[in-house]
Amino acid sequence: MTRNSSTQEAILTSARRHFMKHGFKDASLNRIVSDAGFTKGAFYGYYKSKEELFDALVEQTSEELVELLGSITSGWSAYAEADQMQHLDEAFFQQLPRLADFIVSHRDDLRLILTKAQGTRYEGFTDSLVENNIEHIEPMLDRAGLSGVDRDTYRLLMTAYYGVLSQVVTGDYGRERIIRMIHDVQIVFQNGILSLAKQQDTQEKAA
Amino acid sequence: MTRNSSTQEAILTSARRHFMKHGFKDASLNRIVSDAGFTKGAFYGYYKSKEELFDALVEQTSEELVELLGSITSGWSAYAEADQMQHLDEAFFQQLPRLADFIVSHRDDLRLILTKAQGTRYEGFTDSLVENNIEHIEPMLDRAGLSGVDRDTYRLLMTAYYGVLSQVVTGDYGRERIIRMIHDVQIVFQNGILSLAKQQDTQEKAA
Amino acid sequence: MTRNSSTQEAILTSARRHFMKHGFKDASLNRIVSDAGFTKGAFYGYYKSKEELFDALVEQTSEELVELLGSITSGWSAYAEADQMQHLDEAFFQQLPRLADFIVSHRDDLRLILTKAQGTRYEGFTDSLVENNIEHIEPMLDRAGLSGVDRDTYRLLMTAYYGVLSQVVTGDYGRERIIRMIHDVQIVFQNGILSLAKQQDTQEKAA
Amino acid sequence: MTRNSSTQEAILTSARRHFMKHGFKDASLNRIVSDAGFTKGAFYGYYKSKEELFDALVEQTSEELVELLGSITSGWSAYAEADQMQHLDEAFFQQLPRLADFIVSHRDDLRLILTKAQGTRYEGFTDSLVENNIEHIEPMLDRAGLSGVDRDTYRLLMTAYYGVLSQVVTGDYGRERIIRMIHDVQIVFQNGILSLAKQQDTQEKAA
DNA sequence: GATGAATGAGTGTTCATTCAT
DNA sequence: TATGAATGAACACTCATTCAT
User: Fold this and answer.
1) How many Cβ atoms from other residues are within 10 Å of residue D73's Cβ?
2) Which residues contact A134 (CB under 8 A, 6 or more apart)?
3) CATH architecture of B1-48
4) Chain B nearest CA to A126, separation (Å)
5) What is the distance in angstroms between the Cα of C45 and the nearest Cα belonging to chain D?
6) Would you write out chain C's pLDDT as a tens digit for each of its 207 residues?
7) Does D30 contact chain C (CB < 8 Å)?
8) Domain range summary for chain B, segments of one domain joined by +
């Protein structure tokens, strides 16, 4: 995977800086490469295209993020019974430090993926996370008695939720701050959704 | 002024299509005008710049949206007492149909403003809505006993909330669906935040 | 000649302002015409081209200037005898007020001709004045005993002399000031040239 | 740095030709590079802008000219006493061959600087030479008893004087011819100005 | 492995001029 | 007389990519 030629290293470092500053599309390959101390010819010895360079930067982190979020989500299933929802917190909150650590140690890559990827295959990354998530969670919702919540609305909320993660990543918060913020947001969404479900339940029975 | 030029109409239509597809920055003025059946020279008889063209498309809608959201927000103040928070719904929910109607009838313009405006003066539009909102709401939070919620976290949530509006706009939902969705999301955020505030209150007293 | 349509008048006024500010080439016909309150179509009803517009502004003044300078020059012939050179002043200095008056009352046109005409047929106007002048003066020089002065050098000096006129026109000096300045410059050139001729005479005799 | 690129050479040659013919502003970069046998992309591998190309052509010559004229001017101060003005010639005339050599060997560059630089930072080059000169010479004039000459008039004459240099450069004269011409012009200006000063002295005493 | 020369299509913008109405 | 719509070529400049060396 990572043939650590020092040339490659230099190009990657310069590329990260430029992509971070201008985004994929508006970053100039010319400047990336010459800031790294090389010429465009050298670059094309390592990568086939500008996009492949972006990929090299974020691919691993992207995969790890998918995996991490997947493991968190699948952990929920154990609690997905109506009378255990109040304990769902634990399943998630236990994972929070892991998530925060991951964010802190991959912040730049995550920023690239979440906010600088316009024009690459990561463009709809957040959406795919949401889609993926929903597929996993949908069956649980029924068992948890949340089937009254409209699917599109749920998708909306999940997108908003992942949007919050984007923001946390984009901000310059430290580890503890991140844990606290995600925790609070999690409470808002969790209790909010429960409250919505309860209310709809009431209405249905009344009808 | 001269709204009834068919050329202008053709350019605007073509521009809307291209801006929607590629965003302001990546849309080619060249292709916009030639798709409209004209030359660049013709275009510059109507608009001074590419940005002015974008403006012509969205300016009015943008102003109306700001006004509409402002009138909704300012309506809240009457209910901003701790024991009346449960009635806050009414103030907002009464306005919901107006908001939905606005979205339905200005959908394309709103998409341009909210997701395709990179490179124009509308670039930070959502952020400015959030900032504006926070300024108006902050004093209410204290009176409502929600001062325990961290400001950054609150900003995060508000950004997510407006992000939801973006999504509603981006999706192709009909009027009733939109009303329902925003209503549900509103409940989730409202009750979720109240629940977070209560929990923090408890913790503070324990400490 | 001058069909004084008010439209024409307005266009000429606007054109003068723009040509003065940006020069012929860099002035925009578009702006000239729209500043005058009309459209390009109207303009082309009066003039065949941008250049013709410039011509309309300066043609008369240009001709008058040629005539005036010609009359001054030809007045010298009476004094063009070696022993009357010291009286040549009179011939010129008598005309000075006329020249100054002309400059003051045609200043803008003269500026256009002398410094803003790049790209028009007036581009080499000063040069043609010089050429014209030399043709007239050459025969006198012999009679005046100035034949020792190299012709190219003389041309150089005449160009410089007319360059001074340009500067006087370009500056914002008043009538009296102009008279004084040209008078002084005239003395410098006249006595300077005489002194050069004398010196060359001496050298020739020595040789 | 990399002076020996034949491409660069070809571009510079073509550029010189075009700048000479049309001046900086009206020369087309497109035509410069395609006449050189290349594309615009190739050009921008060597220079950052059209202006930088002009600079590459004339920068060195410009600096050398400033230096040369400076050294000539500063040499005058030794003679700037009223009773030594007649020897000022020597100081200047000794330098004449150097000046002529410089002109002959940098003729094209000098033409660019003096008459084709509109739109570049060399635009007011002659004016700055004049200004610079006046600053240096003003104190000498007092000591030399020439304080009676009006400052504006003096500036006029200096501008004309440098205009003569422009012409010498513009013409296609050989070395000896140039020396002779500048020499003669110098005599005209010098003796002419002295004569003007004397005359004013007389008038003042009379008053 | 790396260079550096070169391409060619692209960007938004300005211009003087034409012409049907 | 004047409009206003449209042209088409020109402008300086940027870009990702190719390739012989």
Assistant:
1) 19
2) A151, A154, A155, A158
3) Orthogonal Bundle (1.10)
4) 13
5) 28
6) 445 678 899 999 999 999 999 999 999 999 999 999 999 989 999 999 999 999 999 999 999 999 998 888 777 776 666 666 666 677 778 888 999 999 999 999 999 999 999 999 999 899 999 988 888 887 777 777 777 788 899 999 999 999 998 999 999 999 999 999 999 998 999 899 889 988 888 887 887
7) no
8) 1-48, 58-206
